[in-house]
Amino acid sequence: MSRIPILVTGAGGMLGSAIAEVAAAGSHFVPHPLTHSDLDVRDAAAVMKLADLAAGGWIVHCAAMVDVKRCASDPADARAVIVDGSRNVAALARASGARLLFPQSFLIYGGGAGLIDDATSPAPLSLYGDLKLQAETVILENLDDPLVIRMAGFFGGGPIDKNFVGRIIPAMHRAMTSGEAVFPVGDRVWQPTWTRDLAENTLHLMHLNADGCYQMASHGEATFYEVAAEIADALGWDGRLRVEPVSSALVASEETGPERRPDRAVMACERLRREGRDLQRDWRATLKAYLTHPHFDQYRPGA
């Protein structure tokens, strides 16, 4: 049986690179990773030239402007990349007969005290979340069988990790090496999820020809403070830097309207679990496994 082609947009990013890497290691798919330098999804003609490459396979559309602040400061370009780019990729899927996988952000939800379940209506607080929701709508309206996976906030990729874990480690290390003993971290609640786990679970759903919408996140939930404390322990910083929680309200007060994020965003992932398709793991175990990556050796004591 021949391997099924996967065209991965945004393959230079955290999620896109993980999906391409995991797919290449398996026997079912053959990935064609396209970074931004390979393909600008705003260019409809360039996108459509890939019809032959995508035919008979999947398109995994990871390309997006993922920086919430940048989206807020340049809304026109953000819309062109996220919404118009998704429209171009959906047109490619329709023209080539390829299936489309759209990784969605948990930031389309407004948060709340309880679990966000499959029936929870999206209510994005940030412009980024709003544009991602618009992109999802475009895809659902233009294709008969897309697969949309609403994913938790993630970490992964070592040197290309631009999310919380990738940013907080060098910041904490700088504080520690400059002699600071306490490092404050907010207490917002999320589901820290490894991109490798997301990639493996996503490819599993694609292999099963799943369609419709799923939620996907690690097992458990954590505050940013708890994640930072686990990092300090895993990197051997105990006794050298004390992580201290601060109220999420202090962080929220620094965010303007288009940059707002929910103080708590925890998804129930009901359909994924009900169908027996949940391959996710506990966030602590995966974070510790991730931090064994050689990239993080530079932050260990004695490095």
Description:
It is a single chain. This protein has 303 residues and is an alpha/beta fold. The chain has twelve helices and twelve strands. The strands form four sheets. A six-stranded parallel sheet has the order 2-1-3-4-5-10, with helices on both faces. α1 links the parallel β1 and β2. α1 packs across α8, α5 packs parallel to α6 and α7 crosses α9. The N and C termini lie far apart (48 Å). The model has no long low-confidence stretch (mean pLDDT 95).
Radius of gyration: 19 Å
Count of DSSP helices?
A: 12
Strand content: 15-25%
Strand arrangement across the biggest beta sheet? 2-1-3-4-5-10
Structural class: alpha/beta
The termini sit apart by 48 Å
Q: What is the number of strand segments?
A: 12
Shape: globular
User: Strand count, sense and closure of the main sheet?
Assistant: 6 strands, parallel
